[in-house]
Amino acid sequence: MRRIIGKIPRRQIMQVAPKASLGALPMLISFELGFALLAGYFAAHYLAGEKTSERGRIPSLVFNVGDWRFHLHHWFLFLGIFVAAVIANFFIIAPFVFYGFLGGVIVQGLSHYDDWTRIVSKQKHA
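Request: output the structure for the sequence above.
Response:
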């Protein structure tokens, strides 16, 4: 099964399941969680760039150290915030709403961009 799914392009898999269905399963647990997940997803979609190389309304954190380029994607940053908040049992508003929103931002970053795995890369010198 894994080999079959590995051969299907990720974009094609994401087109099969509409984006709105991301909130359907969590809504079985809680309406707040489902709506917060969708709100986080669409907020990140609105604020981030359309493509990997485009600058969004909020720029990505990219910096260079020597020959290495670090691109801290928004999903990666929000994953760190999510994990730290869960460990510290911290939330600003209701837990389902807070964690759901963060989860929606993470899901958007993982599902929308092809380079989501490239965090550290070696720079090419001209």
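The first strand starts at residue 61 and ends at 65.
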